[in-house]
Design a protein that fits this description.
Helix content: 55-70%
Mean pLDDT: 87
Distance between the termini: 45 Å
Structural class: mainly alpha
Shape: elongated
Low-confidence stretches: 125-132
Order of helices and strands: HHEEHHH
Strand order of the largest sheet: 1-2
Strand content: under 5%
């Protein structure tokens, strides 16, 4: 992909930055825009929502319960749900070190494959040089 898609409207700046960083990463090379873009849009919107909810939870971890007692902010459960979804998507799209290795997106494996290919080509040329 030469030009990354524009980030969805309404995202916080850190989310827009994250969107651009993804499209500059090795993982983006494995993306098929026609089929993968809707899932990636949901991912970036979920990361944006996570950032927004975290701000609220940090400012009030405890809220008043129905009987006036302090209770953990219900947004904590929402954050756990978003975290689960984000983790799955990040694994699927090679956004973690383990996922990049599994998808062979890390630089060292690419360098190794190039070196192997060059070695094979070099060996093939050497074999041809010895034959009339």
């Amino acid at each position: 992909m030469t030009v990354p898609p524009k980030p969805p409207a309404g995202l916080l700046k850190p989310s827009r930055d994250r969107w651009c960083q993804f499209w500059e990463s090795p993982a983006a090379k494995a993306v098929h825009p026609e089929s993968d873009l809707p899932r990636l849009v949901r991912w970036i919107q979920a990361t944006d929502e996570y950032d927004r909810a975290v701000k609220v939870v940090r400012s009030s971890r405890l809220v008043r319960g129905s009987m006036g007692q302090p209770v953990l902010n219900p947004l904590v459960n929402y954050l756990m749900h978003l975290e689960s979804m984000l983790t799955r998507t990040e694994k699927e799209f090679g956004m973690t070190p383990a996922a990049r290795a599994r998808l062979k997106l890390d630089r060292s494996s690419v360098d190794g494959e190039i070196a192997d290919l060059l070695a094979e080509l070099g060996g093939a040329e050497m074999g041809h040089a010895g034959h009339p």
